[in-house]
Design brief:
nucleotide metabolism; phosphoprotein; transferase; NDK-like_dom_sf; Alpha-Beta Plaits; binds magnesium ion; 4-stranded antiparallel beta sheet; NDK-like_dom; binds adenosine-5'-diphosphate
């Protein structure tokens, strides 16, 4: 297995409930290392651009509204098999379907307010990291 980097977000529903540390601890305990991190309040344009792949979905408006409703922690995580590992630790998109012990099972409120984002493949991880970070902001 290779050391990979993935892109992660702690979404506004979680930062509003002061869960930045609790969620980061779950990621770290799973063997993922935070090699870049910043707190942003995304603009409508940034949220629409980041989630452009979903622009034709019925939930797109709600998604952009939720993501611009408060601060988000954007992070780069590094570790063995980081992309898949992060998706496992996050749990299913709908917390009702998420496994016990996952971030979404433990902390998410609903499918729309599901506390975290994680890249789903090497290509999207590279794109998403680049969307939020310059190379000099990532310190492994
Ligand atoms: P994931 O975040 O697990 O990769 P998707 O890429 O399918 O899930 O969706 C992106 C985000 O859009 C989800 O995390 C969630 O915040 C939101 N979303 C997805 N499906 C719905 C839905 N049916 N209703 C409301 N929001 C949704
Ligand atoms: Mg996704």
């Amino acid at each position: 297995m290779a050391i990979e980097r993935t892109f992660s977000m702690i979404k506004p529903d979680a930062t509003k409930r002061n869960l930045t540390g609790a969620i980061t601890k779950i990621l770290e305990d799973a063997g993922l290392r935070v090699v870049a991190s910043k707190r942003v309040w995304m603009s409508k344009r940034e949220a629409e651009g980041f989630y452009a792949v979903h622009k034709d979905r019925a939930f797109f408006g709600e998604l952009v509204e939720t993501m611009t409703s408060g601060p988000t922690i954007v992070q780069v995580l590094e570790g063995e098999n980081a992309i898949l590992k992060n998706r496992e630790v996050m749990g299913a998109t709908n917390p009702a379907n998420a496994d016990e012990g996952t971030i979404r099972k433990t902390h998410a409120l609903s499918i729309g307010e599901n506390s975290v984002h994680g890249s789903d493949a090497p290509e999207t991880a590279a794109q998403e990291i680049k969307y939020w970070f310059s190379d000099t902001e990532i310190v492994g």
